[in-house]
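Exercise 3.2. Students should predict the tertiary structure of the chain below and write it as structure tokens, then compare their answer with the key that follows.

Predict this chain's 3D structure.
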Amino acid sequence: MDIQYPRLNETAPNFDCKTTHGNRKLSDYKGKWLVLFSHPADFTPVCTTEFIAFSKSYPEFKKIDCELLGLSIDSNYSHIAWVQNIKDKFDVDVPFPIIEDISMSVANSYGMVQPGSSTTAAVRALFVIDDKNVLRAMIYYPMTNGRSIAEILRLVKALQTTDKHSVATPENWSEGQKVIVPPPTTVAAAKARLNEGYDCADWYFCQKDLT
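Answer key:
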């Protein structure tokens, strides 16, 4: 079976599925940002560290109007047992829902199942979906290595800043730092750019403060 991958800047693949918090569908998240992330299986150590980190960072995601939604090809009963185990063993409550995807329908529609890794488990994939249900970023990790939750939070903030101010953000940008002004697209605009009051290294590379 050919894997159909979602594409950036297009509407994210729809889903309507059972979760640990009841039924969820993509349209439920319209008006909010969403981080949808998969893990290979419940009760696995790398995934457990990620769920603990996502849970501890959940208030920070909420502050920027972003929800979290997990997924694995396990049953709701397995998810519930794992969530309870995380509470019992690590004293961490998992505050966001986890999709039951036994049929692999959501995993396949998002390209989470990759035969080079496994035919039965979702790789560690993550999707940032904006408040219009448009897919804005995708990150894939191998099963053996955990993600940086701080980087995911930073990425969502950067995307929101881009939307709000029509700017780009440099490497490892964080709130309060200068942003990149989109480069001019004509010769006349390029000549004028250096006199527009920005912090410029050259006509194509100019930054500014947002405050």
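Discussion points: The mean pLDDT is 92. The chain has two domains: 16-164, 166-208.
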